[in-house]
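User: I need a structural model of HTH-type transcriptional regulator TtuA from Rhizobium mesoamericanum STM3625 for a docking pre-check later this week. Nothing fancy, just the predicted structure tokens so I can convert them on my end. Input:
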Amino acid sequence: MDRLDAMRVLLAVVDAGSLSAASRKLNAPLPSVSRKVNELERHLGTMLIVRTNRRVLLTNAGRDYVDAARRIVADLDEAERRASGEYQAPRGELAITTPVEFGAHIALPIVFAFMEQYPEVTVRFLAADRMVHLIDEQVDVAIRLGPLADTALYAVRAGDYRMLTCASPRYLGRCGTPLKPLDLAHHDGILFGNPSKFWTYHIGGEDVVAMPRTRLSVSTAATNRLAALDGIGVARLFDYQLQDEFRLGTLVPILTEYDGEARPVHIVYSRQGLLPLKVRAFIDFVAPRLRAVCCRE
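Assistant: Understood. Predicted structure tokens for HTH-type transcriptional regulator TtuA:
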């Protein structure tokens, strides 16, 4: 049995939450994933995980072993980076995550330019409308929108963005234009994300949540925009999604005088030991370019 490989498989199972999810993440057959965990448990003479229909749970011994395995794998990865010269020149795989629409509209063109300048760096790009755990998912750098919740990460401010309220001319022609946020209660809307984040307005010096009736609930920012374009209802969208729509008149901004303050865009990264040059090069390359396109002075 390759104990190091078995450790990596066990960590993938724990991070993914189930054997089947780990199988997909590792692109490995499910029986192979299960066998490696079983072999590790037999070698240790103890049960590490409890398998249920939906997920796996760590035993007490499993928690201790997983903590130790993370340290061992991290130390080995660090040694490999040193040996391969990642601290001497930007090279190797760089894992980046951004929100889906921000990646498509803003980040990817900058990432492509970075790759052209640094040909020895390969990129694994994860676009996801969720909070990606950098250490557990082995991601080097994240571009995150809004106030930061994880103060354990290092962060570089790289611009800002706004939430804008809009609707299609077809919807406004059919249902009228709300003149103040409280009018939204009489309108259909498209719900995406946390209402307190997306439907907060600045009214009389205070932040007030004012929402329309939920006509459609969606799980991605892209679907939110498409539904607004189709006239389903009023939507709150990111400003970087709307430049073409406002220019072409396919969406119309409304309630602009009640928009709140701009929200921050950060490049965040974890730092365990020396910072690989590929990460430093990426931050130095991307930060000024993001500020150039995400500045709302």
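Before docking, keep this in mind: The chain has a mean pLDDT of 88.
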